[in-house]
Amino acid sequence: MITKYSGNDFQELIKDGVTVVDFFATWCGPCKMLAPEFESLAKNTEGVNFVTVDIDQHRELTVSNGVNSVPTIVLFKDGKEISRRTGFAPEVQLSKWIESEV
Fold first, then answer.
1. pLDDT per residue over 22-41, tens digit each?
2. Catalytic residue annotation
């Protein structure tokens, strides 16, 4: 399941365990390509939280997380960033990336 960030406490969403956050924009072509891959990854990955953040709706959060391009996927463990990647990647690559980092 993917949680769509709605402006509530971001730290609460990422504080426990492993969380993968997709910073995206509705006008971004690669973001649109990534969306079904991210959704499938969320369905097929156990023990990991998935969150999406629309950068146009949540500018402060985007800036405070150092997101300069989209899509940017940030991997958090217990509230701390441990890795990030930018651009499109298929589900298989994202899954291997997550596995290698946690």
1. 999 999 999 999 999 999 99
2. 28, 31
Length of the chain: 102
Angle at 6 between CA 41 and CA 32, to 5 degrees: 45
Across-strand partners of 83?
Answer: 75
Segment 48-95, tens digit of pLDDT: 999 999 999 999 999 999 999 999 999 999 999 999 999 999 999 999
**pTM above the 0.90 mark?**
yes
98, 18 in Cβ contact below 8 A? yes
Domains located in the chain, CATH noted: 2-101 (3.40.30.10)
Number of C-alpha atoms within 13 angstroms, CB side, residue 53? 27
- Tokens representing 89? 């990647």
Spatial separation of the C-alpha atoms in residues 30 and 21, rounded to whole Å: 16
